[in-house]
Write a structure and sequence with these properties.
CATH architecture of the largest domain: 3-Layer(aba) Sandwich
CATH superfamily of the largest domain: von Willebrand factor, type A domain
Largest sheet: 6 strands, mixed
Helix content: 40-55%
Strand content: 15-25%
Order of helices and strands: HEHHHEEHHEHEHEH
Radius of gyration: 23 Å
Number of helices: 9
Shape: elongated
Number of strands: 6
Number of domains: 2
């Protein structure tokens, strides 16, 4: 029983009835209800290509990650990072799942510039990583957050179509129950004509946001609503 809440209810009722002393009745009884929020297993796919870094958008990505991790320890959320390898047409896991703000901050600082955008491989890596972690934490909600200008230019296989492969990976996410948020990282009013962000969101049944109009707090609230 929630003693404080019960006494407050009885006192309020006594005041309304004019009684000098409160008497606890059945209608005053209150009980403690604990709300357990499902923890998130998030993987950020960070587009660290030259075009985005030239606009200093990676700095805003850091703010989003930090906003999610500030209270991660108490909520049980964990964050991983996937980025593009410099000089190679592939992605890499820059940070394995963690609830540590210190580790995430260090990983973000270490992310180098890359001249290519192998988004299909990055999404494949992120999905594989989340599936592995869900075997250890089956109660967690998996979510991939892609921060990119939506211009994939490296296929998974030689001669492949990077856009078709990316959309195929997005459909696999939807079938496997992995959520997707695409944060379109084009500068204000300058969406790339060939951006695949809307098609990617549609294929995955996800959510699209604009990084230019997004604050860390607003992003954290969006993620909470997805839970």
């Amino acid at each position: 029983m929630a003693v404080d809440a019960t006494i407050r209810s009885a006192a309020a009722r006594a005041g309304r009835s004019g009684r000098p002393q409160p008497h606890v009745e059945a209608e005053d009884l209150r009980r403690k209800v604990r709300e357990h929020r499902v923890p998130f297993e998030l993987c950020f796919v960070v587009d660290n290509s030259y075009s985005l870094h030239a606009e200093r958008l990676v700095e805003k990505v850091k703010g989003l990650v930090f906003a999610l991790l500030q209270n991660a320890a108490t909520r049980g959320d964990r964050v991983a990072l996937v980025a593009f390898k410099p000089g190679l047409p592939e992605a890499t896991v820059a940070l394995r799942p963690t609830g540590s703000l210190r580790l995430a901050s260090a990983a973000l600082r270490r992310i180098p510039l890359s001249g290519r955008t192998p988004l299909p491989h990055a999404v494949l890596l992120a999905a594989t990583l989340l599936r592995q972690e869900l075997h250890r934490r089956p109660n967690a909600r998996p979510l991939i957050v892609i921060v990119s200008d939506g211009m994939p230019n490296v296929p998974l296989r030689r001669g492949g179509d990077p856009l078709a492969e990316l959309l195929a990976e997005a459909r696999r996410l939807r079938r496997s129950g992995i959520g997707l948020v695409v944060v379109e990282a084009a500068p204000p009013g300058r969406r790339e004509p060939g951006s695949c962000a809307p098609a990617l969101v549609e294929a995955a049944g996800g959510t699209m946001l604009s990084l230019a109009d997004l604050s860390p707090q607003a992003f954290a609230e969006v993620v909470e609503r997805l839970g």
